[in-house]
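All the exercises in this workshop are built on plain-text protein records. Sequence and backbone structure share a record, each on its own labelled line. The question running through the whole workshop is how a given chain folds. The record below serves as our worked example for the rest of this section.
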Amino acid sequence: MTTITTRPSALQPALFEAAAVLRNLFAQFQRALQRFDARWQARARAAVAIRELNSLSDRDLRDMGLSRGDIPRLVEQERNWRRG
């Protein structure tokens, strides 16, 4: 019966370093995806707000002190307000 002994390979430190680099890249990619998702959701909320305001009659908008031209500006101000 033969016994196989394993000894550290010369490549082992390089493999650990490569694994650390890959973990870092994956973490950065995850953060980028989270930012993209947050922006995507903000755009979706803005589209809903624009759709709802555009569905109102001119009289309803006037009762609120708004015109149709104010709608995009209001939505942009809301987005900026949420960003802080």
Observations:
- The chain has a mean pLDDT of 88.
- The longest helix spans residues 12-54.
